[in-house]
Structure formats: C-alpha cells, structure tokens
Design brief:
Blueprint: E1 2-6, E2 14-17, E3 27-37, H1 39-45, E4 56-57, E5 61-69, E6 81-84, E7 87-88, H2 94-97, E8 108-109, E9 121-125, E10 129-131, H3 138-157, E11 165-169, H4 173-184, E12 189-194, H5 197-205, E13 209-212, H6 218-225, E14 231-236, H7 241-249, E15 251-259, H8 271-276, E16 281-284, H9 293-301, E17 311-315, H10 319-330, E18 337-341
Parallel strand pairs: 11-12, 11-14, 12-13, 14-15, 15-16, 17-18
Antiparallel strand pairs: 1-2, 1-4, 3-5, 3-9, 3-18, 5-6, 6-10, 7-8
Helix pairs in contact: 1-10, 3-4
Length: 343
Amino acid sequence: MKALRLVAPHRPLELHEVPTPAPGPDDVLIRVHAAGICHSDAHYRNGVAQFDRLPLTLGHEVAGTVAALGARVRSLACGQRVCVHYLATCGTCAWCAGGHEQFCGTGQMIGRHRDGGMAEFIVMPAASVFPLPDEISFAHGAVMMCSSATALHALRKARLAPGETVAVFGIGGLGASAVQLARALGAGRVFAVDINAEKLALAERFGATPVNARATDPVGEIRRATGGRGADVALELIGLPQTMQQSVRVLNKMGRAALAGLTRQPLAVDPYYEVINQEAEIIGVSDHLATEIPELLRFAADGRLQLAPIVTRTVPLDAAAINGVLDDLDRFGGAARTVVEIA
C-alpha cells in the first residue's frame, strides 16, 4: 500500500510503498478515504516532537470503511463507515478506567507513536473506532477526530456554562469548530481573534464577534465590548506566547484560560494581578477523549457543527501536494483545513 512517511525531521515527507498491516484479534483494518492535515503534522516535520522510530506514517485525523475485523471484534461490520479516535490505549489501567485515556502509560497516538492515516490502510483497536453517520462525509469525519474533538475537549475542560462569554484565539480548524461548539453549548457571546480577515469572516458567519488582532489589541477590544468584564472562558489554539498571554489577560474574575496550542516557548504571566487576584485558572488541554466523540458526532449530524465551510481544500495522497500544505501551515496561512482524499 502507499503511505506518506516522515523519514527525518526537517525533511519533506516521502511517499513510500509499505506492507498493508494485518489486524490483531481486537483490531480493525480500515480502508482510509480521508485523512486531515493538522498543524501538528507541520510541527512534527519541523522536529518539535521526538519520535521513537522513523520512518513513520503521519496523519491522526482518519475516516474510512472497515476492510477487515479481528477475530474477537463484534461491534463493527465489514464495509461500515467509521471514524477513528486517534489514541490506541490499553483500556484497563487507572487512567483508562477513569476516563483519561490520553495519559495511558502504553497509549499510542497514530501519526506520532504508531503509523497513522496518510495511507491507504490503517489498523486500530476496535475500541478506538466509531460508526460515522451517513450525514457526515468522510472528509468531515476525519477533521472532527482532532480539530473539532480537541475544541470540544477544551471547552469541557474550561467548564463553559450557558450564558458565559468565550474568546477564541486562532480561527483555524480548531477555532472554527470551537466557535460553533461554544454556541452549541450555550455560550452567551463568542469573540473570535485572528489576524486573517477570511478566517474572521468565517467565524462571524458562525455567529462570533470578530476581533482583528492585526488592527487592534484584542484584550482591550474584548474588555471594551464587554463593559470591562472580559471573557469567562478563553481558548488559545495557536501556540504562541503572545496569544497565550492574551488569553490569560482577557479573563474576567474566576475566568478559565484553556491552552491547546503547541509550543516549547515559556509563558510569562503576572502571578498576582493576572491569576491570584482574579482567582483565574490556566488549564492545559491534552488531546481529547473517546467518550466525547459520540456527542461531537451528534453536533455534526444535526447541523450545530458545520464542517463544509472549514474543510476548504482537498489534496491527493501525494508528497508534493501535502508538503505544500505543511509549508502553508508553517506560515499560519492556507485554507482553514485541508484533507487528503484517498480513493
């Protein structure tokens, strides 16, 4: 089968011919029809993360059809449309049993610790595979498995309550989903912060108040628009120290800043004025949970989460095309979300 592989950091991805994997007794072999391209993939190519082994097939946003079942799998059927929770975990440790499988000691993320979905086939444990409703396309189902799922997890971690004000920093794939999901969860007002006019227009289409950080100080603008209160919940989805600082500084008293953007750079805060005196919280957001996927699929199936305006480009399973998308992501440009379509 064909697979797009990271051979070494700081080098373009390469298309290789590799053996088709065989499912174990509790696994599912999936014929991949769509694989999302995430900003994390650009980080991986740039050497931000360390890898236990290379080459490695990238891609952690996957949807397709069941091609073969392990001997003990009864929950799925061959030919069924599915999407993939990107963590393969043991299911029995204290973290898994407690509903925090992202901390499983033997857990593996596809496209990071084990081969991912930018390939014609992928093997995953059946517990990580979910039926994909007919109302949701493969492309949309794939993108939901990271950007939308992480956005929902961030809002859940931030304990968004109905009527609260939300500020979303970064209107890429995560941010465009976060704006919609915040409204679906009952947010009173949602502010969308970015420097890209097209992305801000998309957020406004979803009911957010756009804030162009290229033209104004977003913290000051959001405080002005809220009578000085600021936001009850702020999501940082970019991974820059500046926007992380802004997500803290924009908070109302007892506000919560949920940080999901990836960076290795330190975050500077004023402990007294920005955190202690406000009783504010800074919350880390790591991945998402399998238990959140059914709710996410319901939001998409009933139209409260719309992916068509977010998935704005598709490319084939081609090294040059996908490396070009990653180049765009390095510049924080390009389409809101790009999906690899595989016949």
